[in-house]
Amino acid sequence: VVEGYTDVMACHLAGVTTAVATCGTAFGDDHIKTLNRMLSASVDSAAEVIFTFDPDAAGQKAAMRAYNDSSKFNAQTFVAIGPDGLDPCDLRSEKGDEAVVAMIANKRPMFEFAIKQKISKFDLGTLEGRVAAARAAAPVIAQIRDAALRPAYIRELAGWVSLDGNEIAALVDVAMKQVRNESVASMRRDNNASKDVGPKDSGVNDSDAPPADSAENSPYPAINLHDPIMRFERQLLEVIVQVPAALDQGLALRICKSAFSAPTHIAVANSIESAIALLGKHEFLPTLAISLPPELQPVLLEIAGQPLPARNEAELLVYAQGVVSRGISAILAREKNELLAALRREEPETEQHRQIGIQLQELEAERRALGES
Fold first, then answer.
1. Picking from 164-168, 189-193, 251-255, 273-277, which range would have the lowest pLDDT averaged per residue?
2. How far apart, in whole angstroms, are the C-alpha atoms of residue 43 and residue 61?
3. In-domain check, residue 260
4. Of the ranges 141-145, 161-165, 180-184, 289-293, which one carries the lowest mean pLDDT score?
5. Segments forming the whole domain that contains residue 60
6. Statement to judge: residues 91 and 107 lie in one domain
7. Are residues 244 and 179 in the same domain?
8. What Cα–Cα distance (Å) separates residue 169 from each residue in 76, 115, 138, 141, 164?
9. 50: which strand partners?
């Protein structure tokens, strides 16, 4: 599926004789119905629909619209983008028939394209950016109906954003539940709409509500503790603050430097680092409170006062050590993924390649030591 009549002519002249063009109109349900009548799909030979779009903003927007409709096809859907921003017509004029055929052959699955579009908007060089990218891409994977394909894309996304696969799977699970909840809520709204006879006084004075942009202007946005990554970050802080006997200063520093992505949690972790010499002493919590900004004092009280799932001191220590072990394992998995991604970018036999290999060996030694302890 190409955009213009010159593109469809170029494809046919290059030997891609199944090309059709939308000729400037938005690709919609009528186009899909027409194509579905022409397509036949089977397990042994699945039909394919390949979209070609310009790499500019308009083309990318059109591609995402096509993604939203991809589930309506009786076929597998793909995206093919020409090199150097060339559409099929210009590509054939500049580089010949073979370039057009190669562009189609180098197609990418629609889900892969949509996921990479989502994560391309974030800085993958930081933990915060990678977590945000994973959270943005999780709903795309949640919409994959093929139960065998979904775990494969969870693994792919974990590699692309250098996070542990279990963390990605948890985000996708939350996204799937949210989709189901929104569907149910939409049905309820439709049912209730017919019962509403007029506006009702909610009893809330609009003047008492906080300014709409107050949360947006805060350097510490509200944290959704239903998010599995955010919930586990909070558990780590709860254990460090409440059960300091579960870890030594070295492990506490390791966690504080690498385990957190939310600005609020990072701020608390930074305060813990500055007071690390007092870990386990009576002065520790008051020192944390002094070093935190006033707007984070309630968060520290929540962390310090959150009941932990243990009936006695022995169970409390076991629980806390388990959380610490999971935290360190997650850090090592992230760092390993980052190093493997960096290794793939380096040429073999270079000094940088060798140094990354040494770092991977050190990480593996640290992981084994953690397992033995």
1. 189-193
2. 31
3. yes
4. 180-184
5. 5-114
6. yes
7. no
8. 24, 15, 8, 10, 9
9. 78
Give the dihedral of Cα atoms 346, 350, 356, 360; nearest 10 deg. 110
What are the tokens at 40? 């036949």
Same-domain check for residues 25 and 57:
yes
For residues 189-202, one letter each, b for 16 or more C-beta atoms within 10 angstroms of the residue's C-beta and e for the rest, the string is eeeeeeeeeeeeee
Which CATH number fits the domain that encloses residue 70? 3.40.1360.10
Q: Which two tokens stand for residue 318?
A: 């076991």
Tens digits of per-residue pLDDT, 249-304? 999 999 999 899 899 999 999 999 999 999 999 999 999 999 999 999 999 999 99
Residue 219 is given by DSSP the state S
Co-location of 238 and 366 in the same domain: yes
Candidate from 62-71, 162-171, 327-336 with smallest mean pLDDT: 62-71
Q: Is residue 223 part of a domain?
A: no
Tokens of 64: 């995402």
194 in a domain, yes or no?
no
Domain boundary among 114, 137, 155: 114
Q: What is the pLDDT of residue 205?
A: 44
DSSP track, 51-73: EE--SSHHHHHHHHHHHHTGGGS
